[in-house]
Amino acid sequence: MRSKIKYNFTRRISTAFTGLLSLFLVMFGLLMNLNSRGQDPSFSQYYANPMYLNPALAGTGECTRLIMNYRNQWPSIPGNYITYNVSADQYFEKLSGGVGIIANSDNAGSGILNTLRVGAIYAYHLQMSRNTQLNAGIEATFHQQRLNWEDLIYPDMINPITGSVDPALSGERPPDYNSVIVPDFSAGLLFGYMEKYFIGVAADHLSQPNLKYYSNSEGNTLYIKYTVHAGAYLNLTSKYERNERNRILLSPNIMYQHQQDADQVNAGFYIERFPLVTGVWYRHNLDYADGAIFLLGIKHDRFKIGYSYDLTMSRLKASTGGSHEVSVTIFLNCNKKRNKPGAIKCPEF
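Predicted structure:
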C-alpha cells in the first residue's frame, strides 16, 4: 500500500512538472511569434516589485512586506516618464497562499497622460514535495487612464505672428471622455526547486480591455503582456558556513517580456554579502542594445533599500539622462517567521 501511495504521489509531481514545462514552452513560443508594441511601464528592479512582475510571487516572503517603488525615466527629456508603485503582501496559512494589494501610478508627458491601476492578488502555494513548490497567482485590477486634454498644444493653436497659444484656434475635436475606466485581469505561475532554482511565467491584461476616448471610435486595445523569468540562488562560500550573513550569494537571472510589438530581455546577476547587494544587467530589445543597469542595495532585518541607474545605450544615449529607480521594502510581523520547507527563494531587488 505504501509503495502504491508513493508511486501515485510521484506520478502527481511528475505530471504537475510536465504540465508546467509544457505551459512554459507554449508561453515562450507565443512570446517569440507575436508582434506588438509595449504600453506598460517597466521597472529595472523587477524583483523589488514582485507582484508587478508576477502575481504568483504574492506571499513568498517570510514576513509581511510593504513595498514602495519610484522610477524616473529619461529626466533630461521634456515630458519624461515618472512611475510610482506601492504594494503589500502576506502569507496566510489558512488560505494556503499569499494575499496582496498593489497600486501603480504612471505619469507620461509631464502629466498629460496618467494611468492608475489598483489590484488585489491571491497566490495559491502548493508544496509538491520536500524540494519543489508551485505557486499559482491571479489578480483583479481597476484600471483608469486619464487624458489631460487642456495641456495638449497643436500647431494650429499657435498664432504665427505673436507665437501665443490660443486653444480656440484649434480644429481638433476634444475627446468624449477624458477618463477611461476598465476592469483588468492577470495570472501567473512560479516553480521553485530546492530553494535554489526558480522559473515563472505571467500574463497581464488577459481581457485586453479597450481604452476609448471617443464614443464612435474603435479605441486602443491594452494588449496582453507576457513575462518569462528564471534564475538561481548559488552559495559561493563553503557549504559548511552556517551563518547566512557570512555567505557570498550569486544570483544569475534572466527576464523576457513581450507586449504587442515590443520585446525586452534583461540578463544579469546579483552578488550579495549581508548587508550589501550589488547587481549588473544588460537590457536588449532584440534589435539593438537598450541599456546597462547598475544596482546598489542595503539589507536589514526590518527593511531594504535599493538604488539603480540605467545607462542608456541606444541612439538616445546622448540626451536621455538615463533612468533612476529607488525601492524601499519594510518588513513587518517578523517575530513569528513561518516554516517554509521547499519555499521558492527569489532575489529581492
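Summary: The two ends are 47 Å apart (CA to CA).
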